[in-house]
Amino acid sequence: MTEYPVRVPPRIPPYLDDPVFYADMIDAIGRGARVLADTPTGVMLRTPGRAIQLTAADADSTDELLDHLDGPVRLLVAHDEHSVPVVQRRFGFERATPCYSSVFQGTGITPVTLPGVRIEPLGPEWAQVVADNYHPDDLRYAVNRLEAGVMLGAFRGDTLLGFIGQHSEGAMGLLDVLPEYRHHGIATVLLTRLTHDLLAAGRVPYDHIIVGNDASEQLQRKLGFTISTRILYWMS
């Protein structure tokens, strides 16, 4: 049986009182995020991946938090709907993707295996394949994630069946099974393996499910993930 390391929780601002909804912010603090503002009405961080994460009681509090920014903003995760128009007004962001937070709160998980399927780290040579299947207009991001060493691929022989990884701010994601290999359990193999690896590294595995992605939500519930009822927004 795998022995996972004992987690030593960092000092978490009291405002972040929901371990599922604020999993991304709590994880980022544990990995060395800079707390830019911590007030009775909100918290704002810059993650090790340079993303901004914030939560605030109201729009005025969001404005006050943003006054503490320490540099440029390319990606911001807002945990309150009232923060969205404030961020859009101040930075001109057009994209605000609504997501649920999904967290594996268990102490361990057994990776699912399939005969003939192996999991291996993916290197930068797979950048074009990852970009073409996950985000065709962002090859640079695929290269960044592959060079960071956070991508895994499922293979049968020399054939790539699918992949999964971690986003720059720490969330699990980039999960995609190539069309011809879907509906054979490959996504389950990938997700359980990455969840196991993060637990083994002392992390709390979490990701963000785009609202309406019912297949992802069903898979994660089946594997024991807890999904928030509140919505956060990826903005860029």
- What overall geometry do the principal axes of the alpha carbons give? globular
Put simply, the count of helices is 7
Helicity range? 25-40%
Distance between the termini: 42 Å
Order of helices and strands: HEEEHEHEEHHEEEHEHEE
**Oligomer class:** single chain
Mean pLDDT: 94
Gist of the model:
The chain has seven helices and twelve strands. The protein has helices at 23-30, 59-66, 83-91, 127-134, 139-147, 186-200, 214-222; strands spanning 34-39, 42-46, 52-56, 76-78, 96-103, 118-121, 152-156, 159-166, 172-177, 206-210, 226-227, 232-235.
Descriptive report:
- The termini are far apart.
- The chain has helices at residues 23-30, 59-66, 83-91, 127-134, 139-147, 186-200, 214-222, and strands at 34-39, 42-46, 52-56, 76-78, 96-103, 118-121, 152-156, 159-166, 172-177, 206-210, 226-227, 232-235.
- The chain folds into two domains: 1-105 and 208-236; 107-203, Aminopeptidase (3-Layer(aba) Sandwich).
- It has seven helices and twelve strands.
- The chain has 236 residues and is of the alpha+beta class.
- Strands 1, 2, 3, 4, 5, 10, 11 and 12 form an eight-stranded mixed β-sheet that branches. Strands 6-7-8-9 form a four-stranded antiparallel β-sheet, sandwiched between helices.
- Helix content is 28%, strand content 26%.
- The protein is globular and about 55 Å long.
